[in-house]
UniProtKB/TrEMBL annotation:
GO terms for molecular function: hydrolase activity. Coiled coil: none annotated. It comes from Sphingobacterium cellulitidis. The keyword Signal applies. SUPFAM superfamilies: Alkaline phosphatase-like (SSF53649). Residues 1-20 form the signal peptide. This is Phosphodiesterase. It comes from the Bacteria.
Length: 297
């Protein structure tokens, strides 16, 4: 009798544990990545769409980059859920790992959020649209349903993302915009020219929000707005807070409203957070953790 009771309790607890792990928050996750968007700029910027999302969702203005505070190394860390000494991409423009990746998939890439989704949901539609070609070197392209590089064209990037959202309704879409990084390098970070470009960034956010609504998936979509680094004067890559603090702004099912997150976060927490929202297991080699504080308990 005791053996049967123990077995019964074990089965019940196992079922509860597995359902809790696989309980998804969202059917779709769309990550908008804006290159060079420093957290320092958010409060001063004229960005009504972004600030409405902050009121309607949760946000942190103190997420930290990995070092150096540059592009490829940080986008890789976000998508791959770990830091540069594990995935191997170490510089602003890394095209191949300068350090051999600690582990690779059959497609010769460190396991990313794309890997995790496709492994556990083979029929899921996943992909990326990006306006900086450097993103393409980080992607495990053979498993993607969509891979669109729109080199230097922000409007084409926006429009392709809108097309995919409306027509395909992907389970996961990563959209990379190269601005306001260009404005930071040309006009200078925290300059009038930089803040002028942030108005365009805000318009892109608004257009993609509208596409999500028009696609009829707003109530089942987690929208994440993130960045790879900030900047100081006309550069970045260093250790100042203006360079290493970036925003995370989340809105969607299960996300707390109007909540400022105080939990310490680092950019490679992104992949586990996406996995958590979709109800899938994180890759064992990831070092990041799901930012559960953004979500209602």
């Amino acid at each position: 009798m005791k053996l049967k009771l123990s077995l019964f309790l074990f089965l019940i607890l196992s079922t509860l544990g597995s359902s809790a792990l696989g309980q998804k928050k969202a059917k779709h996750v769309i990550v908008l990545g804006f290159d060079g968007l420093g957290a320092y700029a958010i409060e001063k910027a004229d960005m009504p769409n972004l600030k409405h999302i902050m009121k309607d969702g949760s946000y942190s203005l103190h997420v930290r980059t990995v070092l150096p505070s540059s592009s490829a190394v940080n986008w890789a860390s976000m998508l791959m859920g770990t830091g540069p000494t594990m995935h191997g991409y170490t510089d602003w423009g890394s095209q191949t790992p300068e350090i051999p990746s600690a582990i690779t998939t059959s497609n010769d890439r460190f396991p990313s959020i794309f890997t995790a989704i496709k492994k556990q949901k083979p029929k899921a539609k996943i992909g990326s649209v990006y306006s900086w070609g450097g993103i393409g070197y980080l992607l495990e392209k053979p498993i993607l349903n969509y891979d669109f590089g729109m080199e230097g064209n922000e409007l084409e990037t926006q429009n392709k993302a809108i097309e995919l959202i409306k027509n395909e309704k992907p389970e996961f879409l990563f959209v990379h915009f190269d601005q306001p990084d260009g404005a930071g390098h040309n006009a200078g970070h925290d300059s009038p020219g930089y803040y002028e470009e942030l108005k365009n960034v805000d318009k892109r956010i608004g257009e993609i929000q509208n596409a999500i609504k028009e696609a009829g998936i707003e109530n089942e979509t987690l929208l994440m707005i993130v960045s790879d680094h900030g900047g100081i004067e006309k550069g970045h890559g260093g250790k100042s807070l203006m360079e290493i603090e970036v925003p995370w702004i989340l809105k969607g099912p299960g996300v707390a409203k109007g909540k400022a997150i105080t939990e310490p976060l680092i950019v490679y927490d992104l992949a586990p957070t996406v996995a958590f929202a979709l109800g899938i297991k994180p890759e064992e080699v990831w070092r990041g953790k799901a930012a559960k504080s953004f979500f209602n308990k």
